[in-house]
Design goal:
By secondary structure, the chain is an all-alpha fold. Helices cover 66% and strands 0% of the residues.
Length: 145
């Protein structure tokens, strides 16, 4: 309700064309490529969480180890990238594409494994991430400087 006295003299209760200024815009759903990347990032975080026990056990015998270093760098990079993607920063697109390239070594590992058909999983995921993050809708999603 608008106070009649303040509306008459142009005070703080004056309506501005029926709209309230300064309201937040409603959130829109991210494009499918970004949603796929967020799922992929959460899968990486879950994998790190499962393997963390092994890394901690290894750190008891040697405080600095190559696998421990790789896991910690991957954890930091993944969390930072997911945070940037959720904030819709322009730099997040390049970081997300970089993180999606981790499917290449995994695909190669499965290719030389006893069951090479497993290469289809990370191969298809990598292609979907690459195509999904390069679509115009995904480019438009990353609009914040």
């Amino acid at each position: 309700m608008v106070d009649v006295g303040s509306a008459r003299d142009g005070g703080p209760g004056t309506p501005t064309g029926g709209r309230i200024g300064g309201m937040l815009m409603p959130r829109r759903l991210p494009p499918p490529g970004v949603l796929l990347f967020l799922g992929y990032g959460l899968l990486i975080l879950a994998t790190i969480g499962v393997s963390l026990r092994w890394v901690v056990d290894m750190a008891i015998s040697a405080p600095i180890s190559f696998p421990g270093l790789v896991v910690m760098i991957l954890l930091a990079y993944t969390i930072f990238t997911i945070t940037m993607v959720l904030q819709r920063k322009e730099a997040a697109r390049g970081l997300a594409v970089g993180l999606s390239t981790l499917t290449i070594p995994l695909a190669f590992f499965f290719l030389v494994s006893p069951v090479p058909i497993l290469v289809l999983g990370p191969g298809v995921l990598g292609v979907l991430l690459w195509v999904g993050l390069r679509r115009p809708a995904s480019r438009d999603w990353f609009c914040e400087p």
